Amino acid sequence: MSFLGFGRPQPTSEEKISAVQAEMKLLTQMHDRLTKACAKKCVPNDYREAELNKGESVCLDRCAAKFFDVHMKVSELLQQEMQQKGVGGGGSAFGFGG
């Protein structure tokens, strides 16, 4: 129950655990998409060396930065849209941003 019966009811421990598990699943999926997309773009299929060369490393770094930049912009737009529709919620999407 919320404080003095006002406001939203507090989530139960099970609800909190479920929310964290859902967020972890989304983060894992996002990591998988980033890894596949950037590896496909930046690392050739025929490995020539055991280590990444400078060009591949720079490409991966830029790819990951762009991926997160787009992710944050999309998350912000979705949050704005949800707020305009009056849908509750709170916090930032996937634990990023403020």
Can you put this structure into words, describing what you see?
- The mean pLDDT is 84.
- It is built from two helices and no strands.
- With 98 residues, the protein is mainly α.
- Helix 1 packs across helix 2.
What key phrases describe this protein's structure?
single chain, 98 residues, mainly alpha, 2 helices, 62% helix
Order of helices and strands: HH
The parts where pLDDT drops under 50 for at least 5 residues are none
User: What percent of residues are in strands?
Assistant: under 5%
Number of strands: 0
Number of helices: 2
Quick one: biggest sheet? none
Distance between the termini: 28 Å
Calculate the mean pLDDT score and round it.
84
Structural class: mainly alpha
How is the topology of this model organized?
Elements: H1 13-42, H2 54-84
Helix pairs in contact: 1-2
At a glance:
The protein is an all-alpha fold and 98 residues long.
